[in-house]
Specification:
Largest sheet: 7 strands, mixed
Protein name: Acetyltransferase (GNAT) family protein
Distance between the termini: 30 Å
CATH topology of one domain: Aminopeptidase
InterPro entries: Acyl_CoA_acyltransferase, GNAT_dom
GO molecular function, one term: acyltransferase activity, transferring groups other than amino-acyl groups
Order of helices and strands: EHHEEEHEHEE
Number of strands: 7
CATH superfamily of one domain: Gcn5-related N-acetyltransferase (GNAT)
Keywords: Transferase
Length: 146
């Protein structure tokens, strides 16, 4: 059965933590809920292989400037290169267009080279930079017009 994406739950996101090694200090469910309470609109997406969660993407309305913020996401190592990240992104883009957003934004760390490549390949442009204590932790802001 092919991979599918649909809206899901924070419990499913948390259950995926152990399969995504980049999440070295994952947030608690309460932290996610707090962030979502502070925003006008939020979205929890889960990628499934049959009925088994294999990836996620979270986002929320961060400001009233017409953009939607893709906060975080990840795909289980077992399902990388299978298209899950692309399906999650496409679902989020379609959802954002349907809700009237004009662009999709996110930031990533300099150390996440695969994420940077993925973003650039999928039409995102670098729009900003936040220095950090070490070069690998510098934050890079990206945006894609919808």
């Amino acid at each position: 059965m092919p991979l599918t994406v649909r809206e899901g739950s924070l419990d499913e996101v948390i259950a995926l933590y152990s399969a995504i090694p980049e999440l070295v200090q994952p947030y608690s469910k309460e932290r996610y809920e707090e962030q979502f309470r502070e925003s006008m609109r939020s979205l929890v997406l889960i990628a499934y292989d049959n009925d088994r969660p294999v990836g996620f993407k979270l986002g929320y309305e961060r400001s009233a400037d017409g953009s939607f913020y893709s906060w975080m996401g990840g795909v289980a190592q077992s399902h990388r290169q299978a298209g899950a990240a692309g399906l999650l992104l496409q679902f989020m883009e379609d959802w954002c267009r349907d809700k009237g957003y004009e662009s999709l934004r996110f930031k990533t760390r300099n150390t996440h080279v695969a994420m940077l490549r993925f973003a650039l390949k999928n039409g995102f442009q670098i729009i900003g930079f936040e220095p950090a204590a070490t070069v690998d932790q510098h934050r890079i802001w990206l945006e894609k017009p919808l």
